[in-house]
């Protein structure tokens, strides 16, 4: 199996830097080959000006070869760092990641289908918030809702299987004993990354959505939250 590890943090000597070392080492120890894109150290240009530039094609080739995409970043203002957003803007191009036609209907494949179908996508996220604030009823919102644009609007939209975020909270207060547990948890998570259950987002089919791409009234009746776009209250096998 082959993984592409994309990370965005300005300081290599940081918690994120250590997570990157542990994560890549854990994959390597279980037989993975790993390609790494360090957006800050590589000086990736996040500005989308022209499509199809040479550096974008290179990154697309690297993504195409991956069975697993790991995207690692600190949570800044409830989103990803600008350089990572720019990487997605430039690399996930029309005709490559989306707007890929269905060979049977000619319509664009999306939401569970698309140019990146068959890949799994895991986010490794650090946050200064306490765990409860990024959970159900937390003031910051549940992490899966906070990252909805990435998990559903990017990964699922382009056909990838999104996995629940691997969240490290209280990131500014990590001591040695806490770090040891964080490292162990990440290793365990990566050992089972290809067999764990994906987030069970609904596919864009007539069974779930009407012609306006709105959920049928009979689907998750009374649920006006993002959870309505999941097929159940729990996750289903991917």
TrEMBL record:
Signal peptide: none annotated. Coiled coil: none annotated. It comes from the Bacteria. Residues 1-184 form the Flavodoxin-like fold domain. SUPFAM superfamilies: Flavoproteins. Belongs to the NAD(P)H dehydrogenase (quinone) family. The keyword RNA-binding does not apply. Residues 229-238 have a biased composition (Polar residues). One of its GO terms (molecular function) is NAD(P)H dehydrogenase (quinone) activity. It holds the Pfam family Flavodoxin_2. This is NAD(P)H dehydrogenase (Quinone). Its EC number is 1.6.5.2.
């Amino acid at each position: 199996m082959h993984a592409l590890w994309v990370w965005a943090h300005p300081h290599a000597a940081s918690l994120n830097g250590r997570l990157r070392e542990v994560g890549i080492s854990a994959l390597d120890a279980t037989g993975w080959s790993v390609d790494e894109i360090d957006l800050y150290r590589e000086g990736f240009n996040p500005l989308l000006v022209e499509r199809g530039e040479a550096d974008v094609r290179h990154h697309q080739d690297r993504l195409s070869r991956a069975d697993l995409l790991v995207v690692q970043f600190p949570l800044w203002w409830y989103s990803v760092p600008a350089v990572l957003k720019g990487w997605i803007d430039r690399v996930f191009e029309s005709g490559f990641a989306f707007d890929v036609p269905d060979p049977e209907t000619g319509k664009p494949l999306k939401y569970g289908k698309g140019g990146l179908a068959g890949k799994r996508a895991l986010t490794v996220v650090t946050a200064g918030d306490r765990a409860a604030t990024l959970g159900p009823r937390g003031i910051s919102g549940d992490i899966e809702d906070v990252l909805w644009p990435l998990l559903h609007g990017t990964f699922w939209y382009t056909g990838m299987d999104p996995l629940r975020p691997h969240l490290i909270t209280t990131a500014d207060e990590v001591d040695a004993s806490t770090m040891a547990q964080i490292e162990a948890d990440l290793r365990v998570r990566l050992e089972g990354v290809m067999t764990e259950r994906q987030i069970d987002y609904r596919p864009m089919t007539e069974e779930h959505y009407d012609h306006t791409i709105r959920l049928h009234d009979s689907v998750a009746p009374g649920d006006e939250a993002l959870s309505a776009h999941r097929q159940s209250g729990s996750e289903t096998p991917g």
